[in-house]
Each structure stands twice: as structure tokens, then as C-alpha cells.
């Protein structure tokens, strides 16, 4: 009895193992390579799959999602013989599980070595300055070469990025000094432009101020002259309206004489020739004056005698 029980137990275990090997569950976005007696048979897609136990075997399970692989820094020589270290990041996706399994032994290592060699070819035709400023150009060229080479491996390179480009330390110091000098130059230029603009605005302001001041003075002078002309016109019209005689004019003439002599600077002043006619008219008016009450007439003032000084021989 005991040998029969042992045989039954062995058969149950074999059946259980066969069932496990028969039913294969493949996760989503994955694929499995099936071989029969060491030869490729088919590719299992996502879901429940049935295989022949002990005859069919799973060779490889491949993730079909997009993968990101960073590669370590690689020394690359530029066209001007400078060594730079470049870090790269590759975004790839397996599109054919069979080709990725049988066409290349290790597609990750193959992609890495292909990236290094292609990068050296691209950077070898560029100088350092162009290398630092042409990342998009390098990315596009590198992706084109990688995508074409990895197509037969069942891999599609979606994107290539240069994570870092590190020039030598001496070059970094020189670049930093150059950048500092350029910033100082731009700052000096901006400061000079500011001073120039300030001086231009100040000059324009002074010009406008002078123009406005001159216009104001001209208008004030015109208004002042107009006022004086108006005053003279009013005085002239008033005199003509009052019809003054010679006596009044002579009296007004004499009243203006003290004003002519006003001021400390008037050391010498000239009496007009018309003063004689004014004095004659005023003298005639005084001579013909008769007081209202009794009394003698006012004696006529005698003219002073002028002595002629002796002339020395």
C-alpha cells in the first residue's frame, strides 16, 4: 500500500507542476519569449497563455514600457583638443521582444557603447564653445544615429539628453573670468548710457526752461510796453481834453526839474533850452497877478547882474 500511495503523491505533484508550467500569466506592457527544445516558437503577450509543459520554456521576459538609462560621464575630445566629460541619458522602448532577445546579446550595453562612439564622432567636429551652446543639435544628431542603429534590435530610441558637459578646470576658470569681464563691461556700458541719457534730459530741460523764461520775459516786456503806451495815451488824451494853456505847461515843466536831478549818480545834468520860454511864460503870469486885497503891486524882480571875470593875459 505504501508504495502505491507514494506513487500517487508523486503523480499529483507532477500534475500540479505541469499545470503551473502550462498556465502562464503575462503582466500588462510585458512580453515573454517561448522556446521549444531551444528554438524560438512564439512571443507571449499580456494576459493568460497556455504552453506545453516540459517542452516549451520561457526564455526571457521583457518590459515593453519606455525605459530611462543614465550613462556615466564619458571623456570626449573636442575639435580644439580639449577634453570634456559628458553625461548622457537615453529614453528607449522595446518594440520587438524577439529581436531584442536574439539580435543582440545585451542591448543596454550595446546602446551605451554606441552612444559613446557616436558622441565622440559628433563632438570631435565641434569646438568647445559650439559644444556648450549646441545641446539641441547634439541631441538630435545622437538620437538619429542611435534610432537607426537600434532599429534592427527591436528598440526605438525616443529621446537623448546631455545631462552635463564639464570642461577642464582651467577652462572653467577662464570662462568664469571672461563672463565676469563681460558682465563688468555691460554694467559700465549701461552706466554710461544712463549718465548720457540723464545729461541729455537735463540739457533738454534747461533748454525748455530757458525758452519758457525768454518767452515769459518777452511777454512781460510787451505787456509792460503796452501798459506804458496806454498810460501815455491816457495822459495825452487827458491833457488834450483839458485844453491846457502855456502857463500850466510852464508850471508843470518846472515841477519836473527836481525829478530830473534826483539820485546820487546825477553829478551833471543839462537844462533844456525850452526852460527859458517856460520861465518867461511863468514870469509873465506872476507879473500880471493882482492880489484880491489892497496893497502895493508886487515889484518885478530885477535881473541879476553878471560880472565878467577878468581875463588873464
Question: Would you kindly provide a brief summary of this structure?
Answer:
With 313 residues, the protein is an alpha+beta fold.
General description of the model:
This protein has 313 residues and is α+β, with helices and mostly antiparallel strands. Helix content is 54%, strand content 20%. The chain has 8 helices and 8 strands; from the N terminus they run αβββββββααααβααα. The chain has helices at residues 2-22, 97-102, 107-123, 128-133, 135-150, 169-242, 246-260, 274-287; strands at 23-26, 30-36, 39-44, 47-50, 56-63, 67-77, 83-94, 155-166. The strands form 3 sheets. It has a 3-stranded antiparallel β-sheet with strand order 3-2-5. A 3-stranded antiparallel β-sheet has the order 6-7-8. Strands 1-4 form a two-stranded antiparallel ribbon. A hairpin with a 5-residue loop joins strand 6 (67-77) and strand 7. The longest helix has 74 residues, at 169-242. The protein is rod-shaped and about 180 Å long. The N and C termini lie far apart (195 Å). The model is unreliable at 289-313 (pLDDT under 50).
Strand content range: 15-25%
Q: Give the strand order of the largest sheet, numbering strands 1, 2, ... along the chain.
A: 3-2-5
Structural class: alpha+beta
Number of strands: 8
The helical percent reads: 40-55%
What's the Cα radius of gyration? 61 Å
Low-confidence stretches: 289-313
Terminal Cα span? 195 Å
Count of alpha/pi helices: 8
